[in-house]
Amino acid sequence: MHDVVIIGGGYAGCLLDSLLEGLDTLLIEEKGIGSKDVSAVTFMRIVDSDDVIRNTYDSYTLMTVDGDSEKYEFGEDVFCLVDYEKLCRSLVRSDVVEGKVIGYSSGKVELEDETIESKIIIDCSGINGESLRKKFGFKTPPIVNALRFERITSPDWVDPSTFYLIVGFANFGGWIYPLGNEFLEFGMANRFRRGDNILFPDIDKARDLFGFKRGSGLKTALYPYGFVKKVVRNGVIIFGDASGLTHPVYGMSLHYISKMATKLADVIKKTIRGKGKLGEYQVIWKETLRRASSLIAGGYSIWSLPLNTQVRLTKLQMKLKISPRSVLDQMWAFDEEFEVYAKHHPKFTDYPLTLHLKTILNRIKMMI
Q1: What are the angstrom distances between the C-alpha of 296 and each of 17, 221, 245, 334, 367?
Q2: Is the pLDDT of residue 209 over 90?
Q3: Which of 105, 231, 263, 342 is the most buried (most CB within 10 A)?
Q4: Residue 360 CA from chain centroid, whole number
Q5: Burial level of 304, CB count in 10 A (0-12/13-18/19+)?
Q6: Distance between CA atoms of residues 81 and 178, nearest Å
């Protein structure tokens, strides 16, 4: 019997595996380590190896579809675009079993041709493992993001030292990630509630809007969005995308996973050594969501507004001249407190009443 079996060889599963040194850990991945289609800009401070970095950025530019923009400069390289497969492979410590998980119960993981026993099971299988989690009794994140992105020749106006987030042509925004001076990655994301008809963004229309030429390597991907409250059940823990571990405003996930993985690994080690219980992580998770409820509720509310309102609020942020430090702190924040410093202070009436009401309701849902 293993101490820990991890299902899923994405960043969440691989990082957690790297942190469980000293335990008998097995990693199960069906399609290959780091094989999922992903577009990942993250904080450089969580990346240990320069070999996995595709490009670095010392600033961030917020844009609207009608051409307004605001650049937040940080004075040093803070963010990087990573090679996801290389990143995941660099973290793997344990043996890897290639196989499809068809189910699990307390203490057992069922593959198509064998059963693996384990004291603790960690499900990091993301959206592909949702049927497994539903069967076991876990809930799934309430939102699905539909992403479409491709590699494009970079025009002269794109600054290779900054990455861009764009508001106004998809209801979860778009992005431009420069890959040096010659190429960039351009993508968009739509978000849908469970049960809605999922449509991938119209990248042709958006490409024409920015004067991009048709690119190559077009990819689509589905990702869950929205935090799951119950993450521990009968010796099984859900982690990473499975628990909705994504920034509610910026859609970034790797640094959130990095923050929580160390806490989860500590609980797992104590549990295996008889000095703690898995339920301690549920307590940590609940308290984390409580402290982050304001940020989470605000993010949920903003992205549920009509596109023209999203654009108006983006222009308001530009007009307020919020400091780069505040933007950076908000990007990093999960349950940490952060202050918003702006040259011009907003009034309550600058924001639509629907946003205030949605935020209050979403925060109540997070707290109960």
Answers
A1: 28, 23, 11, 8, 11
A2: no
A3: 231
A4: 23
A5: middle
A6: 9
What does the domain layout of the chain look like in residue ranges?
A: 2-287, 297-367
CA atoms within 13 A on the CB side of 300: 25
Torsion 74-75-76-82 (CA) sign: positive
pLDDT score at 365: 86
List of residues 6+ apart from 241 with CB closer than 8 A: 10, 12, 124, 126, 127, 141, 223, 224, 253
Look at residue 367 in the predicted model and tell me its pLDDT: 79
Please state which CATH number belongs to domain 2-287: 3.50.50.60
What secondary structure letter does DSSP report for 334? S
Residues 122-143: what's their mean pLDDT?
Answer: 94
Q: 316-331: per-residue pLDDT in tens?
A: 999 999 999 999 999 9
Amino acid residing at 360: I
* C-alpha–C-alpha distance, residues 303 and 145, integer Å: 11
Stated pTM of the model: 0.94
Structure tokens at 311: 């654009």
Residue type, 139: K
